[in-house]
């Protein structure tokens, strides 16, 4: 009995440390969150989505990088990643209980892709730097190594003032095994690293943003009413169907969830 009671207490303590690290450093790595079966299924799903996809046509996304957006109608084996309770516990600790997906995409950084320009994801919003508008996750579908372009992060940079950019020696690679999650503040400066290896580095990247902001991806339009109806209530909420407040996000004067299920 005593041993059984110790496990949740230890788990709660570990969770508090992760939240404190996320607040203090702007990121936390959750190693090996996925089971072997979940990871293998996610990798298979990634490969099926990437089939026939061309490299991106711009420098930021990466001209040796393949990306797939609008994933919600084909979440498939990504669903356990998109709804992982360990990730959402951290996101809720930073954003509160109500939030939605922002940009959501699969990224395959192929050999020879140079490093991305450093940026912070919440830079798309004209908000003061000290507002935590997003808490995001990068799921490693392959081992993230120094050679294959592990995400470069500038620890503590979520607290930097406007206009302060990272110097090259302030960026460190977030090395982690496949199946791990890098959870980070939308204010943290980071970039995809240079892939000098001979293999592709795949990642599933999900932003979570405050419910009253316009998300980077228009999930409602991309998924459509039928697609939304076929999602679980949790994914529907994350798609942005849930109202952001009493008079924010209703449709036809109704709660959008009820509207969707009655039309
Ligand atoms: O692939 C990565 O490591 C990060 C990509 C990224 O930050 C982005 O494209 O916004």
UniProtKB/TrEMBL annotation:
GO terms for molecular function: 2-oxoglutarate-dependent dioxygenase activity; iron ion binding. SUPFAM superfamilies: Clavaminate synthase-like. This is Phytanoyl-CoA dioxygenase. It comes from Paractinoplanes toevensis.
């Amino acid at each position: 009995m005593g041993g059984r009671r110790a496990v949740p207490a230890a788990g709660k303590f570990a969770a508090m440390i992760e939240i404190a690290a996320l607040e203090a450093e702007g990121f936390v790595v959750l190693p090996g969150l996925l089971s072997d079966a979940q990871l293998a299924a996610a990798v298979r799903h990634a490969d099926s989505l990437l089939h026939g996809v061309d490299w991106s046509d711009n420098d930021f996304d990466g001209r040796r990088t393949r990306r797939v957006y609008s994933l919600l109608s084909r979440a498939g084996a990504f669903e356990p990643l998109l709804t992982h309770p360990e990730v959402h516990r951290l996101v809720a600790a930073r954003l509160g209980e109500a939030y939605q997906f922002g940009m959501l995409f699969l990224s395959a950084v192929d050999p020879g892709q140079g490093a991305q320009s450093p940026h912070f994801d919440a830079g798309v919003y004209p908000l003061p730097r000290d507002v935590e508008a997003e808490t995001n996750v990068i799921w490693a579908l392959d081992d993230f190594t120094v050679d294959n372009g592990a995400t470069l992060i500038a620890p503590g940079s979520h607290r930097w003032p406007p206009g302060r950019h990272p110097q090259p020696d302030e960026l460190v690679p977030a090395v982690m095994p496949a199946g791990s999650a890098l959870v980070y503040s939308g204010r943290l400066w980071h970039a995809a690293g240079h892939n000098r290896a001979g293999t592709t580095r795949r990642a599933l990247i999900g932003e979570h943003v405050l419910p009253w902001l316009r998300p980077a991806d228009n999930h409602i339009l991309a998924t459509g009413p039928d697609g939304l109806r076929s999602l679980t209530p949790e994914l529907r909420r994350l798609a942005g169907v849930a109202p952001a407040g009493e008079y924010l996000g209703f449709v036809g004067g109704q709660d959008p969830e009820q509207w969707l299920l009655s039309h």
